[in-house]
Amino acid sequence: MKKLNVLITGASSGIGYSAAIAICGAGHNVYGLARRSDKLQKLSEECDGLSGSFLSIVGDVKNDYDIENAVKSMIDEFGSIDVVIPNAGLGHFNPLEKGTMEEWRSMIDVNITGVLKTIHSCLPHLLNSSGHVVNIGSVAARQVFQNSGVYCATKHFVLAMSESLRIEFGNKIAVTTINPGAVNTEFIGHTANESLREEYKPRFDSGMNPNFIANAILEAIESGGKGIYSEITIRPDIR
């Protein structure tokens, strides 16, 4: 199997962190972008000795320059981009009348603009390599939940972007959308509404292990996004 060069944003925790380890462990090269240098260093240590290579760069997907710099640096190091996983994302849960524009803008900047900028910066390289976009959606991309209207809207965007890419470039690149349910990560910690955070935390604590999502991502990229791998919805076991 061809060794793939994979860019992951939000690589310092959660799904991105687990995906980097799974992909490196399968012999592929990963370039990680995230804000926290200490977490990236820990990830680098975990990937050390695996059959793939891991390199990283500190940056924020809210900053266009950071994304462009990461793409350029990855090309300089690995020579190509075969897969991009715009994984960086966050959620703030609040009723609309209690939420703040700061919360909403933060989600839009990361979950929409950051995803769009990452894909746009990588697209010329993906077209050169007949590459693969793996978008991280959510069950919220298909269903709207109470107290999460803006978050759900951002994930509807991710799904729409995947479909747009498939329509425009379906004969040139592969596109996969991963739609997880609750995953046991630090995700819920971003919610400032204390009562909702405490109410929802047990649901996330009992959610799926991010390694489970990472394995689905690995299976999708190694298949080239063909067939059933165009969209994968993964839900926690309800038993």
Please provide a brief summary of the model:
The chain is of the alpha/beta class and 239 residues long. The chain has helices at residues 14-25, 37-47, 64-78, 101-129, 149-169, 194-205, 210-223, and strands at residues 5-9, 29-34, 54-58, 83-85, 132-136, 174-180, 231-234.
- Tell me about the largest β-sheet: 7 strands, parallel
Rg: 17 Å
The dominant shape is globular
By CATH reckoning, the class would read Alpha Beta
Strand order of the largest sheet: 3-2-1-4-5-6-7
Number of helices: 7
- Tell me the helix content: 40-55%
Order of helix and strand elements from N to C terminus: EHEHEHEHEHEHHE
Low-confidence stretches: none
The CATH architecture name reads 3-Layer(aba) Sandwich
Mean pLDDT, rounded to whole units? 92
> What is the name of the CATH superfamily?
NAD(P)-binding Rossmann-like Domain
Class by SSE composition = alpha/beta
CA-CA gap between termini: 37 Å
The domain tally reads 1
Amount of beta strand: 5-15%
What is the CATH third-level topology name? Rossmann fold
Number of strands: 7
Describe the structure in your own words.
There is one protein chain. Helix 2 links the parallel strand 2 and strand 3. The model has no long low-confidence stretch (mean pLDDT about 90). Helix 1 packs across helix 7, helix 3 runs parallel beside helix 4 and helix 4 runs parallel beside helix 5. The longest helix is centred in the middle third of the chain and has 29 residues. This protein has a single domain, classed as 3-Layer(aba) Sandwich (Rossmann fold). A seven-stranded parallel sheet has the order 3-2-1-4-5-6-7, sandwiched between helices. It is about 50% helix and about 15% strand. The termini are far apart. With about 240 residues, the chain is α/β, with parallel strands linked by helices.
